[in-house]
Amino acid sequence: MDLTLLVSSLAAATAVCGYLLIAVRGAVAPARWWLPAALSAAFAAWSVYAVLDGGPLGFWAEHHGNPWRTHIWMDLLLAVGVAWYLLQPRLRAVGVAPLPWLALVVTTGSIGLLAVLARVLHGESTSSASADDGRRLTATGHGV
Fold first, then answer.
1. Burial, 56: exposed, middle or buried (Cβ in 10 Å; 0-12, 13-18, 19+)?
2. Parent domain of 121
3. How many C-beta atoms surround the C-beta of residue 60 within 10 A?
4. 15 in a domain, yes or no?
5. Which of 43, 122, 129, 133 could form a disulfide with 33 if both were Cys (CB 3.0 to 4.6 A apart)?
6. The whole model's pTM is what?
């Protein structure tokens, strides 16, 4: 089995398991912001390998030439667009300016999208921890 078939198969199996886990247990807790950060780093490492093998625009030849290739390209663009749209309220809620992150997403795809998700979860975990500290202080009579 060649490396690309192995990695593709493992990625598909992991994705399906992850999707099912999220469907059954709910979203990733904000305190686990490191999970999308680690996925972003791992995919970035694979992308470096792909760029070294096929050049920085090697992906383009894979997204045109027949209906299936174009379909996959459009599917990726739509999926990223939906994710970007859904992240907007959460980005703003944690005080993150979206345009610099949009530049990262447009230039790196899922690498940037996972990094944005990690940043949002980190911001939510930080504000959640601050809120918990405030509630604890109020409950003990201190800080009021």
1. exposed
2. 30-139
3. 11
4. no
5. 122
6. 0.81
